[in-house]
Design a protein that fits this description.
With 391 residues, the protein is an alpha/beta fold. It is an enzyme of class 1 (oxidoreductase).
Length: 391
């Protein structure tokens, strides 16, 4: 993680339902250290540590009979191997550790250095280097701003609608996707222009990878899409296996909590799940719906606008309480702010007024006079009470 990293979503939409944030008041966007502290506090509060086997590497997970699983692990401290049998397995190894690089024609011709955002820490090593950043997600935008302070040649290659509205410093050049790397090592963009660079930073996301899963588990990963999963959780081929937090563009903490509760409900009451044939049919229909909308297969795990419906699909059959609408609206408001005002969105502080309304405070105005103007925005789907507050 880079040193200046702060969350892309407000902490009000980044918490487990039974453990609100209390360690950082008056700020909505947290540092990596503060998020880590929240997780540590959560583990300590619920006494989770005794149930965690630290320094153990999972070597393999394979089915035993119809419903059980053999998990083989290596104790990294002693070097000893152990084998366990479980009635159910939840896969929680995350999906932000194996870098995904852009596939560039002629990349073998590039004479400079290539780095993935996973290995970026700070701007200083890129001082005076001609730098190409590929990808305009939040990390790509963050790094473009940072590196522009130490070099005069900084190019962001992207295919988004919003990057042009970000408000980069004048030295930042926006370019379309890379077409190819030419024989002389220069980069040719899809607009036909060529440029030379010392370094390429790939801000192109990560790969879903499960090297410990046996083929008999029934799970495949093709074009970075994990399948077949029912409700993006349950292994349809073997329903005693679940996957948590593989979704993107979702209020991860809250949704992950609902996902694990949903899985536990199905273990206690298997009749909550349709037949295997019905689950496969529903999944096929969902995949076709996304394909018809032009969604790439590698983006099938993105929820975005469909979060509310997804949460309802988990809660309705199990009787679970859904994510409070006020928190979901804060999530949508924060999510939209990333792309509508990337340069300034982390100055926002969300204050919940009641179960229906919240205000948004600009922290740069925190020392000014009391409230100057308040207006509602009924046309905004997030339902925010947009407050320009001077305190």
């Amino acid at each position: 993680m880079y040193k200046s990293l702060r969350t892309n979503l407000p902490k009000e939409a980044m918490m487990f339902p039974d453990f609100p944030h209390t360690n950082k008041q008056g700020v909505s966007y947290l540092t990596a250290r503060e998020v880590l502290q929240y997780l540590i506090d959560y583990a300590d509060h619920f006494n989770i540590r005794p149930y965690v086997k630290f320094s153990h590497h999972v070597k393999s997970v394979s089915p035993v009979g119809e419903n059980q699983w053999r998990v083989e692990v290596i104790d990294l401290k002693s070097g000893q191997s152990h084998s366990y049998i479980f009635d159910a397995v939840i896969i929680c190894n995350g999906h932000n550790s194996k870098p995904r690089y852009a596939k560039l024609e002629g990349i073998e011709n590039f004479k400079g250095r290539q780095v993935h955002s996973h290995n970026y820490r700070e701007a200083e090593p890129y001082r005076n280097l001609r730098t190409l950043i590929i990808g305009a997600g939040p990390s790509g935008l963050d790094m473009t701003f940072e590196i522009s302070t130490v070099t005069d040649t900084i190019v962001l290659s992207h295919h988004t609608d919003y990057a042009a509205k970000v408000g980069f410093p004048s030295k930042v050049t926006l370019k379309p996707d890379v077409a190819r790397i030419l024989a002389d090592g220069s980069v040719q963009f899809k607009d036909g222009t060529n440029m030379e660079f010392d370094v390429i930073i790939h801000c192109t996301g990560y790969l879903y990878t499960y090297p410990f899963l046996s083929a008999e588990s029934g799970i495949t990963v093709q074009d970075n899409y994990v399948s077949p999963l029912y409700n993006s959780i349950i292994n349809i081929n073997r329903p005693t296996m679940a996957f948590l937090a593989i979704l993107k563009h979702t209020p991860t903490f809250y949704v992950t909590d609902l996902q694990v509760r949903y899985f536990l409900h199905t273990l206690c009451n298997p009749s909550l799940l349709p037949s295997k044939e019905r689950m496969l049919c529903e999944l096929e229909c969902e995949e076709q719906r996304k394909a018809d909308k032009g969604v790439r297969r590698c983006d099938y795990h993105l929820k975005g606008d469909e979060n509310a419906q997804y949460i309802n699909d988990l809660c309705k059959p199990t009787g679970m309480a859904p994510m409070p609408s006020i928190l979901l609206r804060i999530y949508f408001h924060g999510y939209e702010r990333i792309f509508s005002d990337f340069k300034n969105f982390r100055y926002n502080f969300y204050r919940i007024i009641d179960q229906d309304k919240f205000s948004v405070v600009d922290l740069r105005e925190i020392r000014a006079k009391p409230v100057q103007r308040i207006h509602s925005n009924p046309s905004c789907r997030c339902g925010a009470l947009v407050t320009h507050r001077k305190l």
